[in-house]
Amino acid sequence: MKHLPKHLRPRWRYLAVALETEPGASLARSDFQRAVWYAAGNLLGDAGSADADLRVLRFSFDAAAGEGTAAVRARHGEVRPARAALACVSEVDGDPIGLSVRGVSGTLRGCTEKYLD
Amino acid sequence: MYEAVHVAPDGDSPATDVVERAARLGFEGVVVLARDATPEYDALHDASSIDVVDGVEVVAPDPERASGAVGGLRPNHTVLAVRGGTDRLNRFAVENDRVDVLTRPMADEGDVNHVLANRAAENGVRIEFDFGPVLRSTGGPRVQALRDLRKLRELVADADAPFVVSAGAPSRLGLRAPRELVAVGEAIGFDPDTVRTGLREWETLAARNRHYRSESFVEPGVERGPYDGDGGSP
Q1: Would you say residue B112 lies in a domain?
Q2: What is the domain count for chain B?
């Protein structure tokens, strides 16, 4: 389908998220994405979750250290609900997880360069 | 902003890990609510960049035993909290001005009404808004916790009672940054400033009690100053 004219394209904000688990716990991108969707669905409801439209775009995790990072996309204007939903991700696949938002950026590149690298 | 934490063996993580993570999340200090834990506060102070407050949480099955514990522990700790969870314990805590904080008042069978909220306001007992179940449970228990938080919020606002906010973290991974807690609070109907005030209240409480326990303090408004012995001018 032909892509949208610029003024009709959704505007996004990119949240840089730091992840932490107990050392040795495994954490896969797909499981994390599912946990984020569940958390958003449960806290914000279907309508709020669809508005926030959270998606995990970058994901890296070092299982040995139990530390990782992710870039999560949210719609512009929905950063606060997105932050709240992310805070409610307490475990992924049975493993407890600690999350914190390091920063929010208007471009994925800005998000990665400023907060994740 | 400060946060209340539990450390091993009450919680799942050692005190150093909890304090280190709280510092990374941007908290200016933590209040360790100890039951059986005996953290080395001096070592924690030296190792950490943030303030660590020695607190104690009285967890008792009934007010009679809680009363004995409050009397015994009050002189040795900066912050004293009583875990609620039954109507009798909640009532005991809010009627006792030696108690600083009533934690988890709505947990289990506990309930709070306007009478208790007014008593808490009179005695300066802070009522805790525990965000733990919002952050870590789902389904029915979470709906009940949200309903209870709403009721508590309305009662506290009506009575103008003091309050604190915490994430009720069982381990270092359960801690959430102040901005995250504000965002969660907003999503469940709290005013953002209310959550911030609740997080700052731990700090205010610790500062007040440290001042009360300092050697210069005699009673509110009366302090030992730097005067010489002849009763003359400073």
Answers
A1: yes
A2: 1
* Separation CA A111–CA A104 (nearest Å): 7
Neighbours of A13 (CB within 10 A): 18
Determine whether the interchain pair A84/B184 forms a contact, defined as Cβ–Cβ distance below 8 Å. yes
Asked if this assembly's ipTM is beyond 0.90, the reply is: yes
Residue A2 lies in a domain: no
CA dihedral over B16, B17, B20, B22, signed as positive or negative:
negative
Question: A47-54 — which CB contacts under 8 Å span 24+ positions?
Answer: A48/A81, A49/A85, A51/A75, A51/A78, A51/A81, A52/A78, A52/A81, A52/A82, A52/A85, A53/A10, A53/A78, A54/A82, A54/A85, A54/A86
Structural domain boundaries enclosing A45: 10-116
CATH number at residue B99: 3.20.20.140
Distance from CA of A8 to the nearest CA of B (A): 28
Q: What is the pLDDT of residues B25-84, one digit of tens each?
A: 999 999 999 988 888 888 888 888 899 999 999 999 999 999 999 999 999 999 999 999
Rounded mean pLDDT, A26-43: 95
Q: Compare all CA atoms of chain A with the CA of B192 and give the residue at the minimum distance.
A: A80
What domain count does chain A have? Answer: 1
For the segment B217-231, the average pLDDT, to the nearest whole number, is 76
Domain of B164 in residue numbering reads as 58-213
